[in-house]
Amino acid sequence: MKNRNKKSKKTGNISRRGFLKGAGITAAGTVIAGSGMLSLQAQTAEKDKTLGPGTINIKMNVNGRIREMNIEPRTTLADALRNELHLTGTKVGCNRGACSACTVWIDGMPVLSCSTLAIEVSDREVITIEGLANNDRIHPLQKTFIEHDATQCGFCTPGMIMTGAHLLKNNHLPTEEDVKVALSGNFCRCGTHPKVITAILDAASKM
Ligand code: FES
Ligand code: FES
């Protein structure tokens, strides 16, 4: 009886969570690379470090400025920009990666900020619609959007401009087809697509 107690006490030193975690890692390590098991275990342990559920402090480079905020790890980039930094130019339409209204640039690439966690971009450069202007000179595409009245309710407009400006950065003389392909993920419920395409082509001819 005494011995049995001793045994169960020893087993009790391994938590159920620790046991399951160890078993899972071992299984994965065996499949991936038997000899690299130890380093895989170390990496997995590092990756599995739990963040939250409370707030954590992060820094982010937004429009050329380092911004600091305390957010829950589940906070999307769109929510961090809008609610923490009050950069409300970025719009949230569908909030599920289907409309591109929330498009921002991360390291120069258009990305859906509603489907990106803020903690994922803490070491990257984020540019929002507010950062597209050159000091007080608006981007040529913002100008042609105004000139061609390429906006109605305006909800999709920041995403359209961030996508269009990225196209013009990489393709100085896009065809109408190029523009349509670039905008294929951007939806406008007000039906401004024809004017948006005209505005982008006009900006290309002026830049
Ligand atoms: S709000 Fe992000 S894709 Fe629609
Ligand atoms: S202008 Fe209203 S959704 Fe595009």
Give an overview of the whole structure.
The model is unreliable at 1-40 (pLDDT under 50). The chain has eight helices and five strands, in the order αααββαβββαααα. The radius of gyration is 24 Å and the shape is elongated. Helix content is 43%, strand content 12%. α6 packs parallel to α8. By secondary structure, the protein is α+β, with helices and mostly antiparallel strands. The protein has three domains: 2-47, no CATH class; 56-131, Beta-grasp domain (Ubiquitin-like (UB roll)), CATH 3.10.20.30; 140-206, [2Fe-2S]-binding domain (DNA polymerase, domain 1), CATH 1.10.150.120. Bound molecules: FE2/S2 (inorganic) cluster (2 copies). The site of one FE2/S2 (inorganic) cluster has 12 residues, from loops.
Biggest sheet, spatial arrangement of strands? 2-1-5-3-4
CATH class of the largest domain: Alpha Beta
Overall outline: elongated
Give the ligands present.
Answer: FE2/S2 (inorganic) cluster
Brief overview, please?
The chain has 207 residues and is an alpha+beta fold.
Helix/strand layout:
Elements: H1 2-11, H2 16-32, H3 37-47, E1 56-62, E2 65-71, H4 77-84, E3 103-106, E4 109-112, E5 125-127, H5 140-147, H6 157-170, H7 176-182, H8 193-206
Parallel strand pairs: 1-5
Antiparallel strand pairs: 1-2, 3-4, 3-5
Helix pairs in contact: 2-3, 5-8, 6-8
Bound molecules: FE2/S2 (inorganic) cluster (2 copies).
Descriptive key words:
single chain; 207 residues; Ubiquitin-like (UB roll); DNA polymerase, domain 1; 3 domains; 5-stranded mixed β-sheet; disordered N terminus; binds FE2/S2 (inorganic) cluster
